[in-house]
Amino acid sequence: MNKISPFLWFNQQAEEAMNFYMSIFKNSKALNISRGPDGKAFTVSFELDGQEFIALNGGPEFKFSEAISLFINCETQEEVDRLWEQLSAGGEEGQCGWLKDKFGLSWQIVPTALGEVLSGPDPVKAQNAMQAMLKMKKLDIAELKRAYEQG
């Protein structure tokens, strides 16, 4: 067990969310499902690419907000595209690589190239890349690099 694990509060969809996330991320597995007397999941624990998560069916009292998001560092545009499509299905697309999945959980789908262009040695080029990013929903690596090079 990891020393620190995200703990997610769902109304009644913890097991459904776990299965959804495990279908998207490689190297994922269910670790434990504890069920109440009615046979429904009460808590679930699972791993996504080695990161452990715990989820609770706690009822409608609390909702997810953008104050907490899960950040995914992507190496390629293909990975950005795949994760964006799968995680935003039934949810909402946001700005600058942010989205909410169908359960309301916020994710950031971010290519490593973004950090490279935003922290590049030329501040004018970095600002051009920042301005390009601010106009995007799903981040586009080629467009970010193009904007950087135009500086």
Give a topology summary.
Elements: E1 7-10, H1 14-24, E2 29-35, E3 41-48, E4 51-57, E5 69-74, H2 77-88, E6 92-93, E7 98-100, E8 106-111, H3 112-118, H4 123-134, H5 141-149
Parallel strand pairs: 1-4, 5-8
Antiparallel strand pairs: 2-3, 3-4, 6-7, 7-8
Helix pairs in contact: 3-5, 4-5
Architecture overview:
The structure is a single chain. By secondary structure, the protein is α/β, with parallel strands linked by helices. It is built from 5 helices and 8 strands, in the order E-H-E-E-E-E-H-E-E-E-H-H-H. It has helices at about 15-25, 75-90, 110-120, 125-135, 140-150; strands at about 5-10, 30-35, 40-50, 50-55, 70-75, 90-95, 100, 105-110. It has a 4-stranded mixed β-sheet with strand order 1-4-3-2, covered by helices on one side. Strands 5-8-7-6 form a 4-stranded mixed β-sheet.
